[in-house]
Amino acid sequence: MNSAEAFEGADDIRRAWLAGLAPDPALTVSQWADRHRVLSSRSASEAGPYRTSRTPYMRGIMDALSPRNPVQRVVFMKAAQVGATEAGNNWIGFCIHRAPGPFLAVQPTVELAKRLSQQRIDPLIEESPDLRALVKASRSRDIGNTILGKRFPGGQLLPPDPQHMDDAADAAAVIHPPCPRRVGWHKRLNRRTCPVRKANSRRNCAPALHNWGRESGL
Fold it and tell me: pLDDT, tens digit, for every residue of 183-192?
């Protein structure tokens, strides 16, 4: 028996090390969504497998959020009910499954952060078998999965509100609401630093993850 096999857990360490040498996922976000995403009746009018062909104009936006794309900031000026929220959910699911790392989903208030988690993030995980296998159910004893935090191998998703940004971990990726929802943030926070800037400063503090770090305003 050589030294690499002389202790318990050596095989796990070897597998993790080899996995770390693997190249970035070849799939784009839209390709991942077509293969792995399942829409829940709790959050979508058309439940079942996600199809980018239903909203083809979202393909380029989602693919700009993929690891191999050089874009660092994606801003989407849009109307209501055009599929942007689900596109953002696809990005979150992609990151959990194929490009794990710390992820912030910034919301204006605690209540909206909880609503995002319960109405969007939970169905995203529960209806997609690959994601369900990575994130334990919140009813389990694992404190890594709560309303305001989802832990998965290689990272975690946090949907903090502006007042709790200081408690959020450094992030490789940030997604935040469109500008109209951010009106009044400064007044409610007594003109404190803009939470989007604070979120991005967290992302900038993770230099090892900058090779795929992204900001999105969907």
Answer: 444 445 444 5
